[in-house]
Amino acid sequence: MIKVLLAVAAGGALGSSLRFLVSAWVVANWPRHYYLATLGVNLLGCFAIGFLATLFVLRSDLPLPLRTGLLAGVLGGLTTFSSFSLELLKLAEGGQYAVAAGYLLGSVAGGLLAAWLGMCLARC
């Protein structure tokens, strides 16, 4: 268990650092389009988690610390949107369409509402 935890921690540090570097680069080169950094890492993370999660099902012989370190660590540090996307697809693939729709709506609308409430509270 400790090996898995250390792999997630190291991967998280790497993913967070990559996210910071991408954001810094985008802001330095395209300051008016700062949001492209988030869009880019989210799309990259979604592609990577789809690819790796499928690969790891096919290659379960790969060590658990490596698999978890990449998925929960690197991609979790890079973007949580990738985890959200994978979970949403798993719900839909499992035929849980109502749960998937609720998760989608709750995450997007709920996240926007929570961010707005946080902004309002900070301005008080």
UniProtKB/TrEMBL annotation:
Q: Does the keyword Ion transport apply?
A: yes
Q: Record-annotated residues binding Na(+)?
A: 76, 79
Q: Which GO terms describe its cellular component?
A: plasma membrane
Molecular-function GO term, any one: fluoride channel activity
Q: How does it sit in the membrane?
A: Multi-pass membrane protein
Q: What catalytic reaction does the record list? A: fluoride(in) = fluoride(out)
* Principal localisation: membrane
* Activity control: Na(+) is not transported, but it plays an essential structural role and its presence is essential for fluoride channel function.
Keyword terms: Cell inner membrane, Cell membrane, Ion channel, Ion transport, Membrane, Metal-binding, Sodium, Transmembrane, Transmembrane helix, Transport
InterPro entries attached to this UniProt entry: FluC
Give the residue spans that cross the bilayer. Answer: 34-58, 70-89, 101-122
Q: Which Pfam families match?
A: CRCB
Q: Where in the cell is it found?
A: Cell membrane
Q: What's the superkingdom here?
A: Bacteria
Q: What does this protein do?
A: Fluoride-specific ion channel. Important for reducing fluoride concentration in the cell, thus reducing its toxicity.
Q: Which PANTHER family match?
A: FLUORIDE EXPORT PROTEIN 1-RELATED (PTHR28259)
Q: Which family does it belong to?
A: Belongs to the fluoride channel Fluc/FEX (TC 1.A.43) family.
What is this protein's record name?
A: Fluoride-specific ion channel FluC
Q: Which organism is it from?
A: Pseudomonas fluvialis
Q: What is the lineage of its organism?
A: Bacteria, Pseudomonadati, Pseudomonadota, Gammaproteobacteria, Pseudomonadales
